[in-house]
Specification:
With 287 residues, the protein is an all-alpha fold. The protein has one domain. It contains 14 helices and no strands. It is globular. The chain crosses the membrane at residues 38-57, 69-89, 95-112, 124-140, 152-169, 181-201, 207-228, 240-259, 265-283.
Length: 287
């Protein structure tokens, strides 16, 4: 195998490991029963501590160039809104609906990337995006606009939009900064924005939820999200977004194994369509 092939294989292994780690967000979000703002505030604060320690250990400079400060601040603000709306969707519904409504973001990214990064729109991304949407249609059991699941889908769509824009902003920064540094600044902004939350809620229940909070901070956020940002160095944002559509499948499997949320046949069909789009984009990107 050539050096180039090894390099590409390593990139694909990294992105798939990142997807597996990030897919734990759904089960953790459903498992943690604290109010959503408090959960996100603790998640951001714990992740910030881990990331600061890692950056200090690796000797990563915390300096940002002047023109990059506002975009990084905006990415942190979008990250906070993304997490708040996503976890609210999870608490309103289940792991499948919460995760899969969020994963409309690859479709949004495919349309937004040419506007943000002046890249050429690829028609294949439209086709793959439609395939993902069909997968989501079969995964969500009921599109009745009068029920709680539909409200959850609305929050998931807002979360998806914030996530897509945040990723596009970070794509322009990863060539100059480490993914861990960018995540550190985002966690600082999330923690700062949600600092009043610690005075607005009863903190006594936190001790009973420490395992879930530690898991979502360390596994999902520090490890998963940092690896995810690093993937922008090797792939377009749209490619990373479409490849990441495998996350709901991982999340649903984890939910079935550990939370007894057993998917029906429509969920299996939807997951198959999503996986098909991932396989196609993986083959295209590898070539």
């Amino acid at each position: 195998m050539s050096r180039s092939s090894k390099f590409n294989t390593g990139n694909f292994l990294e992105i798939n490991l990142a997807m597996l780690l990030m897919s734990t967000s759904g089960p953790f979000g459903k498992f943690i029963t604290l109010p959503v703002p408090l959960t996100i505030a603790i998640r951001g604060s714990l992740a910030l501590i881990f990331l600061l320690a890692y950056c200090k250990f690796k000797g990563i400079s915390f300096g940002l160039e002047g023109p990059d400060r506002w975009p990084v601040f905006l990415s942190g603000l979008l990250m906070a809104v993304h997490w708040l709306t996503y976890f609210h969707a999870l608490q309103l519904s289940n792991v499948a609906i919460g995760m899969l409504s969020l994963f409309t973001y690859p479709v949004m990214t495919a349309f937004l990337e040419p506007l943000f990064l002046k890249s050429r729109f690829q028609k294949i991304h439209l086709l793959l995006g439609v395939l993902v949407l069909f997968g989501i249609y079969y995964l969500v059991p009921d599109f009745n606009f009068g029920n709680q699941n539909t409200i959850a889908i609305g929050f998931g769509l807002l979360s998806a939009l914030c996530y897509a824009i945040r990723n596009l902003i970070l794509k322009t920064k990863v060539d100059r900064y480490q993914g861990s540094l960018l995540m550190t600044y985002q966690m600082f902004i999330v923690g700062l924005l949600l600092l009043p939350v610690f005075f607005a809620y009863d903190l006594n229940a936190i001790g009973q939820q420490w395992m879930g909070l530690l898991g979502v901070a360390l596994i999902t956020t520090v490890l998963g999200h940092t690896m995810f940002i690093n993937c922008f160095k090797h792939f377009s944002v749209t490619t990373v977004s479409i490849l990441s559509s495998v996350q709901p499948v991982y999340g649903i499997l984890i939910g079935a194994l550990f939370m007894s949320e057993i998917p029906g046949w429509s969920t299996v069909l939807g997951g198959t369509l999503i996986l098909a789009s991932v396989v196609v984009e993986s083959a295209r990107s590898y070539r």
